[in-house]
Write a structure and sequence with these properties.
Bound molecules: fe (ii) ion
Structural class: mainly alpha
CATH architecture: Up-down Bundle
Number of strands: 0
Largest sheet: none
Number of helices: 8
């Protein structure tokens, strides 16, 4: 494997492994405050999945000579965790299951394909699990929106777009990684990836029953 590819894909895999751990932490922080036994079970299932995801990435990183090191510094991690801790149940699902898992995975899918078979295999199980995690968020949001009138739905839509934008800005702020350089090393263009993110966002808005069109400023 060419060293430029190994370092680009390896560094991105470090980030994904660290986000698996962050998702695990966010789910465990939310466990005592889950609104129902069913919701708690969904969080516990995700925790089990994130342990598996991290273990797979950790092994792959060992095999390519880039042992896992955290990308998210403790202070940045705590800023994100504190922000999530102040969200209500649906906002939490909007941020983690819809935002990080549902939309973020669209970039991981492209990187996995571009990085080659080792990374594709390493991300195969996480990508399928994260689709399931996102669909749990979609079902919960569909239930919420089915109980609201048009005005209330519009308010929820605005709040959800703000959550997505905030996740995007916090991630950019918290991850000191030259993403664009590594995407380019893998033959990926930032503009294409952003269009992928916007497409996935529209799809998720449509799936939960909201107007899918996005403001021009969204993740521009
Ligand atoms: Fe994961």
């Amino acid at each position: 494997m060419e060293d430029r590819i190994r370092i680009a894909a390896g560094t991105l895999l470090q980030v994904y492994a660290d986000i698996d751990l962050l998702a695990l932490e966010l789910c465990s922080d939310r466990l005592p405050f889950a609104p129902s036994a069913e919701a708690r079970r969904a969080l516990m299932t995700q925790i089990e999945e994130e342990v598996v995801h991290f273990s797979i990435q950790e092994r792959t990183l060992e095999t390519i000579g880039m042992p896992f090191t955290p990308t998210l510094a403790l202070d940045k991690r705590n800023v994100i965790k504190m922000w999530f801790s102040h969200l209500d149940w649906y906002e939490f699902l909007g941020g983690l299951q819809l935002g990080i898992e549902g939309i973020g995975i669209s970039v991981v899918e492209k990187v996995a394909t571009a990085a080659g078979p080792i990374f594709q295999e390493s991300l195969r199980i996480p990508i399928s699990d994260e689709r399931r995690q996102a669909s749990f968020g979609v079902l919960e949001w569909r239930g919420l929106l089915s109980r609201l009138n048009t005005q209330e739905k519009a308010k929820q839509r605005e709040g959800l777009l703000n959550i997505f934008e905030r996740i995007y800005l916090m991630t950019e702020e918290a991850l000191p990684v030259p993403f664009e350089q590594y995407w380019n090393d893998l033959g990926l263009e930032k503009d294409d990836l952003w269009e992928t993110v916007r497409d996935r966002t529209r799809k998720i808005l449509h799936q939960i029953g909201l107007e899918p069109d996005l403001p021009a400023s969204f993740v521009a």
